[in-house]
Amino acid sequence: MSSEPYEYIETVSPEHIKRERLKAREMRASSWWKQQIGKGVCYFCEQKFLREQLTMDHLIPLSRGGRSTKKNIVVACKQCNSLKKT
């Protein structure tokens, strides 16, 4: 038996990503999203920003099987959003 940790990597289909991106686009027009972004606070750094400086971010990325749901979508400043990708 190996002492190496076992890591399961799920393959996410392009169809899943396309479908969830469409849901996210539709969610941007919702009153829920407008309320969230209207608060002007980044989920990660908790700083206040202008609306134009904020983005929609998935806590669990679509590429890792995440979904476009209220529980998985947060408001993030552009800097925090880009730092997640590095």
Number of alpha- plus pi-helical segments = 3
CATH architecture type of the domain at 40-86 = Orthogonal Bundle
**N-to-C order of helices and strands:** HHEEH
Low-confidence stretches: none
Q: Would you count the extended β strands for me?
A: 2
CATH fold field value of the domain at 40-86: DNA Binding (I), subunit A
Structural class: alpha+beta
Strand content: 5-15%
Rg computed from alpha carbons, rounded to a whole number of angstroms: 15 Å
Q: How would you state the average pLDDT, rounded?
A: 90
Note the overall shape. globular
**Broad CATH class of the domain at 40-86:** Mainly Alpha
Describe the structure.
The structure is a single chain. The chain is of the alpha+beta class. The chain has a domain of 47 residues: DNA Binding (I), subunit A. Helix content is 35%, strand content 12%. The chain contains three helices and two strands. The protein has a two-stranded antiparallel ribbon. The longest helix is centred in the N-terminal third of the chain and has 15 residues. It is globular. The termini are far apart. The model has no long low-confidence stretch (mean pLDDT 90).
Describe, in short, the structure shown:
By secondary structure, the protein is α+β, with helices and mostly antiparallel strands. The chain is built from 3 helices and 2 strands, in the order ααββα. A two-stranded antiparallel sheet has the order 1-2.
Identify the notable features of this structure and list them briefly.
single chain, 86 residues, alpha+beta, two-stranded antiparallel sheet, 2 strands, 12% strand, globular
